Amino acid sequence: MGNCCMTPSVQSEKKQGKHKSNPFATDNGSNHASRNGKNKSYVLDNPTGHEIEQTYELGRELGRGEFGVTFLCTDKSSGEKFACKSISKNKLRTRVDIEDVRREVEIM
């Protein structure tokens, strides 16, 4: 699954110097052949989560929901803060779950 970014409604304090691994660094997305030739299932038609760590620095966890975890992230070039949501494809068990996530992404 790809990720979505949006500006938080409340400014958060600066990150405390801990470096977190990128939960968005996994392959995501409709059926496309992977490096080993197998098809991968994609939830979004145009996933954007590739190499997100080059643009954003992930911060602390902001919250958890039914399908994923939301993190504070900061644009490395501008310093602007966003909320980045990582959605676990393993928790998307039905077509309705997938459509709910697609609808949420469209809204953002």
UniProtKB/TrEMBL annotation:
Belongs to the protein kinase superfamily. CAMK Ser/Thr protein kinase family. CaMK subfamily. Transmembrane segments: none annotated. One of its GO terms (molecular function) is protein serine/threonine kinase activity. It comes from Davidia involucrata (Dove tree). Pfam families: Pkinase. Keywords: ATP-binding, Kinase, Nucleotide-binding, Serine/threonine-protein kinase, Transferase. Residues 1-46 are annotated as: Disordered. This is Putative calcium-dependent protein kinase 32 isoform X2. Signal peptide: none annotated. ATP binds at residue 85. Residues 1-11, 23-36 have a biased composition (Polar residues). The keyword Transferase applies. The lineage of its organism: Eukaryota, Viridiplantae, Streptophyta, Embryophyta, Tracheophyta. Residues 56-108 form the Protein kinase domain. Its EC number is 2.7.11.1. It is an enzyme of class 2 (transferase).
